[in-house]
Design brief:
The complex is a heterodimer of chains A (220) and B (240). Chain A is an all-alpha fold. Chain A has a domain of 138 residues: MetI-like fold, CATH 1.10.3720.10. Chain A is elongated and about 80 Å long. With 240 residues, chain B is an alpha/beta fold. Chain B contains nine helices and ten strands. A six-stranded mixed sheet of chain B has the order 6-7-8-3-9-10, sandwiched between helices. In chain B, strands 2-1-4-5 form a four-stranded antiparallel sheet, with helices on one face. In chain B, β1 and β2 form a beta hairpin. Chain B starts with a strand and ends with a helix. The chains are: A mainly alpha (220), B alpha/beta (240). The interface between A and B is medium-sized, with 18 and 25 residues.
Chain lengths: 220, 240
């Protein structure tokens, strides 16, 4: 009887592949943003700690804005702002740009806390041995501070993986966007969101597991 | 030789060192005593350039410490320093703690740095703790580790900033013994200390500091038996 074309089709095995590819894009944009954001965050955090007054007035203020404005608003604002100043940026580039700065803002504070955790007496002890400022940073502040704030950094990284879902509003075909497309087609939100959730878990779990192992190695 | 000439140091409005003149010759052990806040520790920090000074100068073997042209990192290799808090590097074993500075500052090879570290750890009686992390060492052992770490740079002078003040009473002895050993070996030492026994028995000279001024300096007999200044007399009467 039904010779009319249906708008909806069932969830198929190939859809899982579609979700997998999208998960790969989520991983990609997260990895890029976390990497760039962490490098920038280390530099900003160091600057904030080293020259409190000047850096706080400049970098600190900018980072406060990035930390305080909802990510989704930042994404939409920047995505629409870039063409105005003549930058041609696709959803990936714009998303990675905003996510990186957002990550940097969070990491900068983690890094500043890490340097503070080392403390001035420890650094004076290092300098009294004839270490230069940079040797002190590299061989004393970095390893000791890193151990102190590594769990906080992992927390930031995990939240960035999840927050990358917001890049879907720019039309970037990552995990959440792919799920929405499939839901529209199959009308099976429960199965598809469960699959998407499982993919997010699969992306995050190795990081949290690996970091725990790393921490255990440090404390022994 | 360490020469301190008309040294003035301020922390904001606070005049913590008010024109200190003091010479310490090679092989000498000088103890600096005085109540808290008298500027004793600050003087040590000024000697190895960890604190800026506002007036006067500190000269170590002919090199002016606070001269902008002075390679301060190089100069500090001649001035070992031990702090009240031992500040051992928690992520490194005892051996690595001691070997780190020779390796990265003096560019010693891995094997050289290791053998220097072994030698110095044995020197301070920690020969059996080479691979132990600081968290597994007592306060006294960590302080001896800090002494070994400073000695590994083969300094000409050792500055001790209240090296035993943060220790439990039963651990003070082992650190003082190590300091005594160094004094017997002829190390030039400036010891800011609250240990009057050590100051009396080990030092060649004792200086008494009071509110940023060096009230008097002389042989231990002179200072402890016949102090000239009223402040010194009062201080010694209180600590005895």
């Amino acid at each position: 009887m039904s010779n009319s074309a249906s708008f909806f089709t069932d969830f198929q095995a190939t859809d899982l592949l579609f979700l997998g590819e999208a998960a790969g894009r989520t991983l990609g944009i997260s990895a890029v943003s976390i990497t760039i954001g962490t490098i920038l965050g280390c530099i900003f955090g160091w600057a904030l700690q080293a020259s409190r007054w000047f850096a706080q007035a400049t970098i600190g203020t900018v980072l406060d804005v990035f930390r305080s404005v909802p990510l989704i608003i930042q994404l939409i604002l920047f995505y629409n702002f870039f063409p105005i100043i003549g930058w041609k940026m696709g959803p990936f580039a714009a998303g990675a740009f905003v996510l990186s700065l957002y990550t940097a803002a969070l990491v900068a504070n983690v890094v500043r806390g890490g340097i503070d955790a080392v403390g001035i007496p420890m650094r004076r002890a290092a300098r009294s041995l004839g270490m230069s400022y940079w040797q002190d940073l590299r061989y004393v502040v970095w390893p000791i501070g890193l151990r102190a704030v590594f769990p906080s950094w992992v927390g930031v990284a995990l939240s960035v993986i999840k927050d990358s879902a917001l890049v879907s509003v720019l039309g970037y075909l990552e995990l959440l966007r792919a799920s929405q497309i499939l839901i529209t087609r199959t009308q099976e939100p429960f199965i598809i969101l469960a699959c998407a959730g499982a993919f997010y878990f699969a992306l995050s779990y190795p990081l949290s597991k690996y970091s725990k192992k790393l921490e255990e190695g440090w404390t022994s | 030789m360490i020469e301190i000439k008309q040294l003035h140091k301020y922390f904001g409005a606070l005049h913590v060192l008010q024109g200190i003149d003091l010479n310490v010759s090679k092989g000498e052990v000088l103890s600096i005593i005085g109540s808290s806040g008298s500027g004793k520790s600050t003087l040590l920090y000024c000697i190895n350039g960890l604190e800026e000074i506002q007036q006067g100068q500190v000269v170590v073997d002919g090199t002016t410490v606070h001269d902008k042209k002075t390679d301060i990192n190089k100069l500090r290799q001649r001035l070992g320093m031990v702090f009240q808090q031992w500040n051992s590097f928690p992520h490194l074993t005892a051996l690595e703690n001691v070997a780190l500075a020779p390796k990265i500052v003096k560019k010693a090879s891995k094997d050289q740095a290791k053998s220097i570290a072994e030698k110095q750890l044995k020197h301070v009686g920690l020969g059996d703790k080479l691979d132990v992390y600081p968290s597994a060492l007592s306060g006294g052992q960590q302080q001896r580790l800090a002494i070994a770490r400073a000695l590994a740079m083969e300094p000409e002078y050792m500055l001790f900033d209240e090296a035993t003040s943060a220790l439990d009473p039963e651990l003070v002895g082992e650190v003082l013994d190590t300091m005594r050993l160094l004094a017997e070996e002829g190390m030039t030492m400036i010891c800011v200390t609250h240990e009057m026994g050590f100051a009396r028995d080990v030092s060649d000279r004792v200086a008494y500091f009071h509110q940023g001024v060096m009230e008097e300096v002389g042989s231990p007999e002179q200072i402890f038996a016949a102090p000239q200044s009223v402040h010194t007399q009062k201080f010694l009467a209180n600590v005895r």
